[in-house]
Amino acid sequence: MMNIKKFKSWGQLQTVLTVAEVGSYRAAAHALGVTSSTVARHVDIISQEIGHPIFLPAGNRWELTDIGKELVAIAEATQSSLGFMLKDIENSDDFFGELQINTLSFINSDFLAPAMNLWREKFPQAQIVIEANDETTAIERGEADVALRLSRPDTPGVARFKVANCKIALYTPEGGDQDAWVGLPQSLDNLPEMQLARQLFRAFPIIRMDSYHAVANTSKATGLSCILPTCMARTYPDLRQLRFDDMQTHVDRELWFLFYETRKNDPAIKAAKCWIKGIFPSPNKCLCGKCD
User: Fold this and answer.
1) Which of 58, 69, 199, 246 is deepest in the core (most CB within 10 A)?
2) pLDDT tens digits, 100-136
3) Model pLDDT for residues 57-88, shown as the tens digit of each residue
4) Dihedral of CA 9/98/146/253: which sign?
5) Long-range contacts of 36-40 (CB under 8 A, 24+ apart)
6) Ramachandran class of 239: left when φ > 0, alpha when ψ lies in -120 to 50, beta otherwise
């Protein structure tokens, strides 16, 4: 009997069930709407969790090991029981599990963290984990239940709805340096706002920081110009937006709520939707609802 541990994601176990059913990573990827590498990663994670290989290659197929067969039997029984349970609670507002969200650091600090009281009031028995970073982390890696991102993905199998608009503009302290600027890490140079600033200043940022709040504070301390979401800039009255008659000095972004389509009735996803929709004013307004 294997030593069953707490898996990080039911989605990873669902991947194993799909491979066992269709016999190949490619076919499983097609069925799940993900990439073959994602399927392989999920299988590897589960194999590492239980300390044994789940599949072995057999010609053009992957066949279950004895441990794999035991795992699949347990997972299928669990899936069947879970299906009946979800039907009973589908229309319930109660959520007692754990929700994992991956988002941008300023979305977490400026919007999600201040609204944590709403989460606690609505779901007092639930656990929530928010990983905030400014890198793009794919939810198909099983690292989160929900992602909040400033881009609309076209990844197969990933459902989405728009949460709010987000304008990011160029700012400078009064009397500050308009020839040099503070930006985000080099890995984010492809962002529209980074490209806009580089085009205007005709140079890469002279200082790079790992978050928008760090960018704003560095701009205030050094007098250098910077890029900031307009909603955040409202909290930095010492910074003024740069405007030029012959050039646009802002980019329009959108915040999207992302999750797997196959999990649309999952209580964790429903709880996240309920909470997030209560935080942001409207999909057609900015994040704070106060900017032009």
Assistant:
1) 69
2) 999 999 999 999 999 999 999 999 989 999 988 755 5
3) 888 889 999 998 888 888 777 665 555 444 44
4) negative
5) 38/138, 38/140, 38/141, 39/15
6) beta
8 A C-beta contact, residue 164 and residue 287: yes
CA–CA gap between residue 257 and residue 253 (Å, rounded): 13
Q: Which of 128-132, 139-143, 263-267, 280-284 has the lowest mean pLDDT?
A: 139-143
Contact residues for 115 (Cβ-Cβ < 8 A; gap 6+): 275, 278, 279
Euclidean distance between CA atoms 117 and 112, whole angstroms: 10
**Please, are residues 45 and 6 in contact by the beta-carbon 8 Å criterion?**
no
* Beta bridge pairs of residue 241: 171
User: 250-260 and 158-173 as β-strands: parallel, antiparallel, unpaired?
Assistant: antiparallel
How far is Cα 58 from Cα 53, in angstroms, rounded to an integer?
14
Beta strands per DSSP E along 195-279:
207-208, 224-229, 239-241, 250-260
Query: Which structural domains are found in the chain, ordered by start?
Result: 10-89 (1.10.10.10), 95-292 (3.40.190.290)
Model-level pTM?
A: 0.70
Chain centroid to CA 109: 15
Q: What is the distance between the alpha carbons of residues 38 and 46, in angstroms, rounded to a whole number?
A: 13
CB half-sphere exposure, 12, CA atoms < 13 A? 23
Structure tokens at 41: 């990663």
Q: Of 81, 158, 41, which is closest to residue 16 (Cα–Cα)?
A: 41
Q: How close are the terminal C-alpha atoms of the chain, in Å?
A: 62
What DSSP character marks residue 88? H
Identify whether the C-beta of residue 145 lies closer than 8 Å to the C-beta of residue 264. no
The 3-state DSSP composition of the chain as helix, strand, coil percent (nearest 5) reads: 45, 25, 35
